[in-house]
Amino acid sequence: MKSSKQLLIFVVDDEQIIATTLTLILQRSGYLAQAFFDPLQALAAARLEAPDLVISDVVMPQLTGVDFAIKIKTLYPDCKVILFSGQAQTRNLLESARKLGHNFDLLSKPIHPVDLLRDIRKHEAGIETP
Q1: pLDDT tens across 16-73, in order?
Q2: How far is the C-alpha of 92 from the C-alpha of 128, rounded, in Å?
Q3: CA-CA-CA-CA torsion sign (106, 109, 114, 115)
Q4: In a domain, 130, yes or no
Q5: How many domains does the chain have?
Q6: Rounded-to-integer distance, Cα 117 and Cα 26, Å
Q7: C-beta of residue 66 within 8 angstroms of C-beta of residue 54
Q8: Residue 76 is assigned to a structural domain of this protein
Q9: Pairing verdict, β 32-36 and 53-57
């Protein structure tokens, strides 16, 4: 159960070491974070408990991070989304999402933990928790 100040953050990346490492960094920084290596499992978990923030890789085999983000935003319009990628094809996926009315932030891999936490804090100001 979330406290009034603790955000639930889903970290989604098919590269397990990245998802696990980012989740550990977030947990040590005081966030309630969960790692997912499959976006479909993260989507199923989101149906049970709404995340406040999702950090997702863009290029994944089961479902792109952009498509995953759109599904999350459909379920929870107030959920904040940060996408990250190390691949050039990401720009095309983001442009397709923008045409559908979705404007997601994109961070480049590799990301330094300080930069990630700074971006999360930027989003945190717009997140209300019960």
Answers
A1: 999 999 999 999 999 999 999 999 999 999 999 999 999 999 889 889 998 999 999 9
A2: 31
A3: negative
A4: no
A5: 1
A6: 8
A7: no
A8: yes
A9: unpaired
